[in-house]
Specification:
Helices cover about 40% and strands about 20% of the residues. The protein starts with 7 loop residues before the first strand and ends with a helix. By secondary structure, the protein is α/β, with parallel strands linked by helices. The longest helix is centred in the middle third of the chain and has 23 residues, at about 250-270.
Length: about 500
């Protein structure tokens, strides 16, 4: 299913009745043509729906209220064709709860120098009207994205498409349920946080789910369902032929992993959850139904299907990965939950190995993943454990995390370059190797200064622009570590942000 097929972005044109009925007809015709052109361009992931020209305060308020109440509408694009007095937008903007994009464009690309007259000037006043609209948004502190450019240009449509994907993820987050199977690792601060504030600010709801309840689903899984899923594993992934020996201990581990996957999928579906966390110290009771190994293979495959995942109870990463997956739909290179594991000091090529015990999403694999079974000496069940083994694609990407700073949430974003790793014959796990930009020392140092987690959500296809739009919609802080970052400048940015948020909280 196309993730975006039932979603809409509404297009509302601003004008007024001062210029007469003919002008209103022309504005409407131009707007219809523009919306049709945007939809036909093939660059926008979400359908644009023209909702008419707003010529009065009541019309603005009516269309914005309708946007709020339509579940298909994930955002509103506004464009001022003529001069639209900004006071008529006040009541509507006070009520609008959907993300807003202000498109500063014009129906015609160039000025018709030889034929332009006063009628043309009066009709085509985007240069005038968009500044008026921009002023009222700024005065009212309305969070929005501003895109400037000709509406038919590729880059203009690309920026609209980025915002649309973020809006889709934002709409998805508003009814995202994260199930935590077990709590987080004891005494870990960075993966903890204020769940109430997170739901107020970012929409998702986090619930604890006893592992004993998960085990009820586990007990109901039918053997024939497990057999079928094991057969799917062998069809999809490279593996040693010996793994298919149904009498072997390794086959039993794969079979049990498939049963764990079916149990997890069933409970997530029944509860309507879009994300989950696990804890390797809580896998069920030893005297009853339990997982015989960490459900790493299940987590890998569920992530590829779009379920958010966070290890060790990290609910913020689980929710954020779900949003990354939604934004990433239809883009070619993939995304994953990752963890900073160990460092490689090698001068200008110093890098960080991204891995985890098992739970890395195969969407980022450089080739066909390999199904393997190896001993895992961590957690309450130290045992042979099934997993998908691969290395990531090379290329540039972007990783992000959200941390709770006490008085606000901070979104930390780092541009990175995934490079070719050396073989890891003694570490059979999925992994990526990257150099944080602008260099290892600055990138890692800035991440630590910002309080970043050891978990993050990575994508080759998303860029910092996506996260800028996300932070703007959510109203949270964002810091971006990129090729221009210096530690001195970054420290100043963090300190200035601290002052801003302290003053903002005091004023509120």
């Amino acid at each position: 299913m196309n993730t975006f097929e039932n979603l809409e972005v509404w297009f509302v044109t601003g004008a007024q009745l001062l210029y007469g009925g003919d002008a209103v007809i022309a504005v409407d015709a131009h707007s219809n043509e523009m919306v049709a052109g945007l939809n036909a361009g093939g660059r926008l992931p979400v359908k644009v729906v023209y909702k008419g020209t707003a010529n009065s305060s009541k019309e603005v308020e009516s269309v914005f209220k309708a946007a709020n109440n339509d579940s298909r509408c994930i955002g509103v694009i506004t464009w001022m064709h003529t001069f639209s007095p900004a006071k008529m937008w006040i009541h509507g903007l006070q009520q609008l709860r959907k993300p807003l994009l202000h498109l500063h464009t014009q129906f015609n690309r160039e000025i018709p120098w030889d034929t332009m007259d006063m009628d043309f000037m009066n009709l085509n006043q985007s240069a005038h009207g968009d500044r008026e609209f921009g002023h009222i948004c700024a005065r009212m502190r309305v969070r929005r994205k501003v895109v400037v450019g000709y509406w038919q240009d590729e880059d203009t449509q690309r920026r609209i498409a980025v915002w649309m994907r973020v809006c889709a993820a934002w709409a998805d987050a508003q009814d995202t349920l994260v199930l935590r199977f077990g709590d987080q690792m004891n005494n870990v601060a960075v993966t903890d946080g204020d769940k109430v504030e997170a739901e107020q600010r970012m929409g998702y709801h986090v619930d604890y789910c006893p592992v004993s309840e998960l085990m009820e689903y586990h007990a109901r899984v039918k053997d024939e369902e497990v057999d079928a899923l094991v057969g799917e594993y062998f069809r999809l992934y490279d593996h040693d032929a010996a793994l298919e020996d149904a009498g072997s201990a390794a086959y039993a581990k794969i079979w049990n992993s498939a049963k764990a996957e079916l149990a997890l999928r069933a409970i997530l579906k029944d509860k309507g959850a879009k994300a989950f966390t696990t804890n390797f110290d809580d896998l069920g009771q030893t005297d009853g139904s339990h997982f015989d190994q960490i459900p790493g293979l299940a987590s890998q495959r569920l992530m590829a299907e779009g379920y958010g995942f966070g290890a060790e109870g990290d609910w913020k990463s689980a929710a954020l990965y779900r949003s990354v997956w939604v934004m990433n739909q239809g883009l070619p290179k993939g995304c994953s939950f990752l963890e900073d594991y160990t460092l490689n000091f090698d001068g200008k090529d110093s890098s960080i190995l991204q891995a985890h015990m098992l739970e890395i999403c195969p969407l980022i694999a450089s080739g066909r993943p390999r199904l393997e079974v190896h001993f895992l000496g961590i957690g309450i069940r130290k045992s042979e454990t099934a997993r998908l083994v691969f290395t990531s694609k090379t290329g540039t990407g972007c990783t992000a995390t959200v941390v709770d700073m006490g008085n606000r949430f901070r979104l930390i974003v780092n541009d990175v370059e995934c490079i070719e790793p050396k073989p890891l014959p003694k570490l059979p796990v999925a992994s990526a190797l990257w150099k944080p930009m602008p260099d290892f020392e600055t990138g890692a140092g800035a991440w630590i200064l910002a309080g970043g987690t050891h978990h993050s959500c990575f994508s080759y296809d998303l860029t910092a622009e996506y996260w800028e739009d996300y932070a703007e919609i959510a109203g949270i802080e964002m810091v971006h570590i990129n090729k221009e970052t210096t530690l001195g400048g970054f420290r100043k940015e963090l300190r200035m942000n601290e002052v801003y948020y302290m003053l903002n909280k005091a004023l509120c």
